[in-house]
Amino acid sequence: MAILRALFVFLFLLILPLSAQSKALTFTLKQAVEHALDANPSVEAKLLAIEKAEMDVLATGGYFLPRVTLLWNRGKLENTGAVGTEEDYSNWSLSKGIRVQLSLFAGFMHLNSVGKALLQVSVEEARHDLAKLELIGNIQLHFLELLKAREDMKTVRDSKKRIDTQLKAAKAFVDEGMAPQLNVLQNEVELSKVQQQEIRVTNTIRSSEAMLNRFLGYDPKMQVHYKGSLQEFNGAINYTEEEAIDMAMRNRPDLIIAHKSVALALKQSHITAGRYLPNVNAYYDNMRASKVYSDRKDYARSYWGAGVNVSWDVFDGGQTTFTYISDRKAAASLRKDYEDAMAAARVSVIRALLDVKAAKELITTSRKGMAAAKEGYDMANGRYQMSVGTITELLDAQVNLTQAEEDYSRALSEYHAARSRFFYNIGVENIGLQ
């Protein structure tokens, strides 16, 4: 009995993690995005870039602190000529000590270097935000593609059932001599078309799932269930055109990056301009020196020294001047890129709003068309069953119904995809697409 109890506990502990894993591999759209934001390598890479930029700020801050250097020198002087002074005698020398240096002025290059490093942190943070926005948008679009493919699969299977029913009825009519064999053949042709469509939709579903797995950090072949339907997303766009454009100008990471890039280029030009000014450094030395002679008394002394060094490159062949001009040209070029990016952002926001509006109207129209197509198919099927309608009329009604159902799911998908692109274009992270 004890053995059976132990075996039961072992099996329970074995099955429990598997069931937990199975539960963990089911994602709604919001859960999928949240998981990807924590696990996707592209987002993690941008976080590491932020940390690097922060370390660069600390590194540039070191310019304002003293530098401490330990000095040690051991040497041999062998005189092979005439001896003039005591210093000319052959000897072994040893010097050691400490040197402290502090930069008092460097043409504001150190200060501008710190400012540039701080700007770089802002740029890397914006790149991280942009990577998140792109990841959210990609997951949402592929998730919607998957849900639409599932709706298409439902439409295809419903169509297949209708054609199967029609095929059976056609065969029964042929057997009774009430319809020609052509009715059976026409139904078989339509059934073949639906089967081909089923293969295409199945491939779309698998491709979408593989892409979603990649974004979430799973093997493309792993079985992951993505849960949801196009009908459950009921959010709306309540922004006016002016509000949306203003939001984009303030929030879009790519615009922030473009603006900060101009500031970075200007900081670099200021650093270059600092070469025109002198460098002033303070120093303090505390040393001990000794010499050992082969035929004279050894010599040793301790000393300290302090002072200020001033250096000024008054001419460097034009290198500083041309570099400064190049830096300013780069800043001007980036400023034009920023202006172009703002203009493109305004257009993309307006287009996104128009796409949302058009897709919303398509939903209303396609819903009415689907209802009419369903009613038309029911009427054509009833007429055919009573032998007062033709197979051509019924097949046309069947095709119209299938097309109307596909149009409705496409309109839903396009509406939600347009909303996803709209939020991307104004720089807002709407992970659940609500």
Task: Please give the oligomerization state of what you see.
Answer: single chain
Report the order of strands and helices: HEHHEEHHEHHEEHH
CATH topology of the largest domain: Outer membrane efflux proteins (OEP)
What percentage of amino acids are in beta strands? 5-15%
Secondary structural class: alpha+beta
Strand order within the widest beta sheet: 2-3-5-6
Biggest sheet features: 4 strands, antiparallel
How big is the Rg? 39 Å
**What is the assigned CATH homologous superfamily of the largest domain?**
Outer membrane efflux proteins (OEP)
Helix-residue proportion: 55-70%
Q: pLDDT under 50 segments (min length 5)?
A: 16-22
Query: What number of structural domains do the residues give?
Result: 2
CATH architectural category of the largest domain: Up-down Bundle
- Give the overall shape, derived from the CA principal axes: elongated
End-to-end CA span: 55 Å
The number of helical elements comes to 9
The average pLDDT value, as a whole number, equals 87
CATH class of the largest domain: Mainly Alpha
Number of strands: 6
